[in-house]
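FAQ: What does the model actually see?

It sees only this:
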Amino acid sequence: GQSLYAAPWDAERGWISGPERRIADRLAKGTIACSDDGTLIYAHDQTDSSARRVMVIGPRAFRAPLVEHAGPFDGRVRVSPDGHRIAVNALVAPGTNEVQVIDLQRGIRTSIREDDALSTFDASWASDGRLVYHVRRRASEVDLVVTEPGGRTAGTPLIPRPCAPREIRNAILTPGDRYLLGDCQFADRPSGLYLFDLRDEGEPQPILQSQVRTHPALSPDGRWLAYNGYENPGTHVCVQAFDPERPDAPPVAWRSERSDVSNPFWSADGSQLYFQNMNGDLFSADFQAEPEVRVSKPETRVTRGAMRSYRNPVRGRTVDVLPDGR
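And it is asked to produce this:
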């Protein structure tokens, strides 16, 4: 691991004005970020190379573990709608993942498991605080399952087997939980972003057809869809109107000028759109829907590739923002 040092800086003269001081040891490479108030967060490799903590250091040198796990996370993290819990993928044995839910206030960790499953993975939150996650069965089948409000597994797959794709990633429920969106691969139809009506066992409707993952993100009110738009040689973030009753794709309402950004997601109130560049730097832009769609010039929120080691092109974004936006 690496060590983190701090030294006083004379901004007027532009040089270091005193001796350095070691702040932390055994940092996982490229895993440090700093907020505006000086709070640091970083991944800490322990003596056992498979053990890792996520640590927080406050402005007054208060230090505490935010997340601790005796084994690696794969980087995916999703914050619950109330901001009190996070869902992560944890590697609990070679080739076996499980979704773990961590209560940030009480420090309680809950494993999401199923008796007949090899793994649970890639969770997202429904608007009412339930979890939607994948289950890999022993017959190599993958189902998409939703928990009940108390955290118990509902058991019945969201998508009936005849309609289920060969693979689905980045699945999200629409507000009201009637529809599901996801990057799908089928054996008998083109790959792309598809819409499933969970009250009807009819055919899934294509929203965007693409050979690469679009990483969809719905605004909190369900009216706007952000996604990765691929144009050789780059990737743009695009936004278009969304109506599940009329799934035909409308014209793109906004497209990022930068061609090196991807993996968009929304703030809790829908006023901010977040995305990352190829180095993992995090940006945000103000989003205005009325009287016409306007997106402000993106501002850098986390710099210098602080989250670079957590980029995961298959499972989508590996960063999230708490509901307070701070």
